[in-house]
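User: Can you write out an input/output pair for a complex, sequences first and structure second?

Assistant: Here is one pair. Inputs:
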Amino acid sequence: MNNRIIKWIDQRFPLSSFVKHDLTEYPTPRNLSYWWNFGFLAGFVLMLQVATGIFLAMHYKADVTLSFDSIQHIMRDVNYGWLLRFMHATGASAFFLVIYIHMARTLYYGSYRAPRELMWWTGQGLLLMLMATAFMGYLLPWGQMSFWGATVITNLFRATPFFGEQVVIWLRGDYGVGDATLTRFFSLHYLLPFLIIGGVLVHLVALHTVKSSNPSGIDLAAKDNIPFHPYFTIKDLYGLGIFLIVYCIFVFFLPNSLMEPANNIPANPMQTPTHIVPEWYFLPFYAILRSVPNLVGGVVAMGLSVMVFSFMPYLDRSRIPGGARYRPWYRAMFYLFAVDMVVLGYVGYTPPSDQSIVMGKIATFFYFAMFVLLPFISRKEEQWLIRRGLPSDVKALVASEAKEKIKLPDQRRSGDIK
Amino acid sequence: MKKLIVILMLCCSSIAAGAAESKLENIQVETSVQAVERGADALMNTCHSCHSLKYITYHDLVKFGMDKKKVDDWRGDQPLDTAVTSQLSDETAIQSYGKVPPDLSLMTKAREGGANYVYTYLIGYYITPEGMTSNHVFPETKMPDMMGISGATDPAQRAEIQTKARDIVSFLAWAADPHEEERHKLGYYVIGYLLVLTTLLFFVKNQIWSRLK
């Protein structure tokens, strides 16, 4: 019976072959570590945000006179409304945490290198859409921080050459952030997640073309690949369990720790809060913005600080496989960069003082210096490593896997040592 | 080297930030119905003339378990589902205090320091050497010393005022987050369930992976 239905479908739609190709027989490197769980987790959080968001939208009112009250209505009167809202608000932070770890893994293991550049670039596009969605969602509660955050950030578009003023008005739909801004942000906040879902599909199609990278940084031969299902379905589910425990600790016990107190005060255009801070996930970029003394420079630096990751496949000139694992210099840079991010985050959080401004400038300089120096350092490091000889296990691995590699002539790519 | 300096600076300044925070008194907010009801009582007598709690209705108080007779006293002839709003009009408030007293429904969530801040603010009034009343955490506040702490010198009297302030803050903490207790209770179940599930998944995972030699 079942078989007949599936056969009927298969004649009209490639169901079985899809399941086979992309799940039950999809070859996955068996040596993936838990750092490879975060892509699945990001997809899960995306679904969670869409699901909770749809229900929140049933009770939310996008109107400057009503939205603050409607959030309180959700928090107090709607059945389990508090749960929906805390899940959604905590989910935003969880999303960024998961994505940042996902990106850090890619950087550490060099997964952005050929032939996975398109994975990296579609991922970059997804990050931008995620940032836009989060930024617009933050306006919706119409608290003080919502209002002033949106005011400060839309104001940055004043840096646009020639039409700065008009662009700001066009974005806000009014001279200041107001009802028109709120309603359009709500509309786009509802739209963008669906574009993100589309982007994720492209990301996945690309993934299933080039297959997963792995901690060794070498494309593994067939013998070292195992089917995605059941090995990685169960591993992803186990990882999901761990993630949900951490997530639920925040949702149920610490939900307010991620919210700015000032956002529990209704937006008041007449009163600027003493200290405007974005959510934690924007802090490093915000610090870079503030570290450049002039508006245009700051905006360009901030935009570049997000977009500069795209250049990684070209900036990293080393052909040593395995990302940071077999590359001590690159590994040191990776950790320094992580520390630099934390310093920038701290600078973005504290009110500007003489000390924090200097700290921000140094950290901003360091941030960009890393990317600028990477081509030279990675080249030198490669020469040094080849002169010194790779560890014998890496050499053996490279040799044993070499026959089966996807051949991309004329390309420098990870694992090519010649 | 540069990095090291930055890290050192980071440490120094976070210690400095910690010192500023510690000005607030640390209190344990009570969640029992009795304590919250005592707080509501005190608030109705000393604060309600100026402040509203527009997201709390008298019905919410009854539903929470407060004495119906008391709630009826507070609401007078207003219907049970009216919000707890004060009679003070904005115009009069601006005339008398230069400012509209803020709504208190979300007060313990709307200030850095939360309940500790509100408590420290309420009992933070003192008489300056010039004979003026001021406040330790909000020196330029327009609100008079409603708890009468600045004039109280007798330790027993001060202790009594502090107890009353703690009750009021307990009530405000409930008002800001009325589902907190329910949230915690549900949280224990959910996390307990997830712990069991994740442990099981861990064993299933090991079992499946053991098929690979």
